[in-house]
């Protein structure tokens, strides 16, 4: 289990993390979400002992990371795939990691094969693509076969095969009972692999819940209906429902399940052409949650926005 | 698990870090060429002017000044090796693998200093053997003289290496640490000694370059400099630099 308790981290006058507390349970993949500059990477660096918390504590299985004599056997982390000596070969990088933690050399060959870097492991890292560096970073994280894993944006630079591989890997680890914390900007990816999500913005906790709870809790249950008698259906829906009209023959109803809408339409002899519950995406939920916490906004050039530039 | 075990593992990793990058091999080659090459030049000079060599002369003395070149080469190697992690961002995985920063500091200082000092001493010995080989038969290579010479050279190279490592860890920049090291070992001792003030010679004698110069050549900016004062000066600078570098490694965030 990873426990972050009241962690605040300031760099000069910038408060990167602000009194943040959450726990990451074992046996689950926990997604760590937030806009750019929200403090995700800083929080992970504090957990890993790379940056010192201004106040608060971060522990892994009850101990601070620095207390582990052989940390690779306790926690595997991929924090910054670019942070490697470019003049070293991938194999040398992993051998140094193994030596520093008393891990047998054969394990280096095993993880090289596991991440699919076999042929490239003898090449210097400066010749690696971002995806290959990610794989090498993941290999280092897996070297000690640790019960706790922290991955910061692990799918960056990976091709589709790599993305599917890491998805299976993380799910597999969680099913084995390990603790997995993953940050990513790819909401669709998170929706596929995360059991829980911790959302932060401007260094503060915004949400800490399971995935269905997050999707249910924002925007509630919505039903999409298409009918040639849209006005009639709207008039028979009760006062507890909220109705939107995306089109002349369409309704989006909030506050009642699809079965109730269907029964009501049947009772009043209203013909339906389409009836379905609308599942809110994690992306929608995330955008709703982090609205107001985004520090860095991009702007579409006016001409481009107007479609004048081809 | 004992701290000694963690230190042994961290030291083994440091050894791997040094020899898994090309720059260490390039440095080793360059320093070897410079030091042994100078020994060769001295040997040729002695062979061509045998009358200039007094009876009972020692090849150790002839090759002694190659230690100055060994010093600059090994200090540069120590600086480059100790700053490599910070320059490339590799300090992040290094601290992930060895989060006990005191142990990392000890392993880094120990392994780099021992490696470059051993390299320097071996090369100066090799240069002495080259001088002995080329010089007339009356130039000897007495074991006792060798031990005395190498004792001083070990102090010079060892303290120089620790100074380089300390400056490297304190500045986290190869360029800044190299400039500081050259200033302290070469430029400032010469420059300060030339200043027309009473305190200039005393100040110059307190710089590490003057200590190294005295231990290698027996000359310094003050007439009353002794081997002990020179050794203390070098050791104090090495310890001071290492303390500053260690403080930064122990107290600062990685990469900041």
Q: Could you explain how this protein is built, in words?
A:
The complex is a heterodimer of chains A (310) and B (256). With 310 residues, chain A is an alpha/beta fold. Chain A has two domains: 2-216, 3-Layer(aba) Sandwich (Rossmann fold); 221-279, Alpha-Beta Plaits, CATH 3.30.70. Chain A has helices at residues 40-47, 90-100, 106-115, 130-142, 160-175, 187-193, 211-217, 230-236, 258-267, 282-290, 302-305; strands at 2-11, 14-24, 29-33, 55-60, 75-78, 148-152, 179-183, 196-201, 204-210, 222-226, 242-247, 250-254, 274-278. In chain A, the strands form three sheets. A six-stranded mixed beta sheet of chain A has the order 5-6-7-3-8-9, sandwiched between helices. In chain A, helix 2 crosses helix 3 (106-115). Chain A starts with a strand and ends in a 5-residue tail after the last helix. Chain B is mainly α and 256 residues long. Chain B has one domain. Helices cover 80% and strands 0% of the residues of chain B. Chain B has eleven helices and no strands. Chain B has helices at residues 3-19, 22-48, 59-63, 66-88, 91-97, 101-134, 143-171, 174-193, 198-205, 208-217, 227-251. Chain B is globular and about 60 Å long. Chain B starts with a helix and ends in a 5-residue tail after the last helix. The relative contact order of chain B is 0.14. The mean pLDDT of chain B is 91. Chain A binds chain B through residues 11, 45, 48-52, 65-66, 68-72, 77, 79-80, 82-89, 92-93, 95-97, 99-102, 140, and chain B through 1, 5-6, 9-10, 12-13, 16-17, 20-23, 84-85, 88-93, 95-101, 251, 253-256. Chain A: Belongs to the ABC transporter superfamily. Chain A: Residues 2-227 form the ABC transporter domain. Chain A: Keywords: ATP-binding, Nucleotide-binding, Transport. Chain A: It comes from Knoellia aerolata DSM 18566. Chain A: InterPro entries: AAA+_ATPase, ABC_transporter-like_ATP-bd, ABC_transporter-like_CS, P-loop_NTPase.
């Amino acid at each position: 289990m990873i426990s972050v308790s009241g962690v605040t981290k300031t760099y000069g006058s910038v408060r990167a993390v602000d009194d943040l507390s959450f726990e990451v349970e074992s046996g689950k993949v926990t997604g760590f979400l937030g806009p750019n500059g929200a403090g995700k990477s800083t929080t992970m660096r504090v957990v890993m002992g790379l940056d010192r918390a201004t106040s608060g504590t971060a522990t892994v299985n009850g101990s601070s990371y620095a207390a582990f004599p052989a940390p690779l056997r306790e926690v595997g982390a991929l924090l910054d795939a670019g942070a490697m000596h470019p003049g070293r070969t991938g194999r040398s990088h992993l051998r140094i990691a193994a030596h520093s933690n008393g891990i047998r050399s054969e394990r280096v060959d095993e993880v090289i094969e596991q991440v699919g870097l076999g042929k490239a492991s003898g090449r210097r890292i400066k010749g690696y693509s971002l995806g290959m560096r990610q794989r090498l970073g993941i290999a280092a994280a897996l070297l000690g076969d640790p019960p706790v894993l922290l991955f910061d944006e692990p799918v960056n630079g990976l091709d589709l095969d790599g993305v599917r591989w890491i998805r299976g890997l993380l799910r597999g680890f969680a099913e084995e009972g390990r603790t997995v914390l993953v940050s990513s900007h790819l909401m669709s990816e998170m929706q596929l692999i995360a059991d829980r999500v911790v959302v932060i913005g401007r260094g503060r906790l915004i949400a800490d819940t399971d995935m269905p709870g997050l999707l249910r809790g924002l925007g509630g249950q919505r039903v999409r209906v298409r009918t040639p008698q849209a006005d009639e259906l709207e008039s028979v829906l009760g006062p507890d429902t909220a109705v939107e009209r995306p089109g002349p023959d369409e309704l989006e109803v909030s506050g009642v399940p699809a079965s109730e809408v269907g029964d009501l339409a049947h009772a009043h002899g209203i013909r339906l052409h389409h009836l379905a519950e609308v599942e809110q995406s994690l992306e929608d939920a995330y955008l709703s949650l982090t609205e107001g916490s985004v520090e860095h906004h991009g702007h579409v050039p006016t001409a481009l926005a107007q479609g004048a530039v081809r | 698990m004992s701290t000694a075990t963690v230190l042994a593992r961290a030291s083994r990793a440091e050894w791997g870090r040094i020899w898994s990058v090309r720059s260490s091999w390039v440095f080793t080659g360059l320093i070897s060429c410079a030091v042994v090459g100078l020994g060769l030049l001295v040997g040729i000079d002695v062979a061509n002017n045998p009358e200039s060599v007094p009876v009972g002369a020692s090849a150790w003395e002839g090759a002694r000044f190659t230690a100055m070149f060994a010093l600059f080469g090994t200090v540069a190697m120590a600086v480059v090796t100790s700053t490599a992690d910070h320059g490339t961002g590799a300090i992040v995985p290094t601290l992930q693998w060895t989060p006990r920063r005191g142990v990392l500091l000890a392993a880094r200082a120990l392994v780099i200093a021992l490696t470059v000092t051993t390299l320097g001493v071996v090369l100066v010995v090799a240069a002495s053997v080259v001088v002995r080989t080329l010089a007339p038969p009356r130039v000897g290579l007495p074991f006792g003289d060798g031990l005395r010479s190498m004792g001083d050279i070990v102090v010079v190279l060892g303290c120089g290496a620790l100074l380089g490592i300390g400056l490297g860890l304190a500045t986290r920049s190869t360029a800044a640490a190299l400039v500081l090291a050259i200033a302290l070992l070469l430029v400032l001792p010469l420059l300060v000694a030339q200043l027309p003030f009473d305190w200039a010679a005393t100040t110059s004698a307190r710089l590490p370059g003057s200590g190294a110069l005295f231990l290698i050549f027996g000359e310094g900016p003050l007439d009353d400099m002794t081997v002990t004062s020179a050794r203390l000066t070098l050791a104090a600078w090495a310890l001071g630099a290492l303390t500053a570098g260690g403080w930064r490694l122990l107290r600062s965030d990685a990469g900041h």
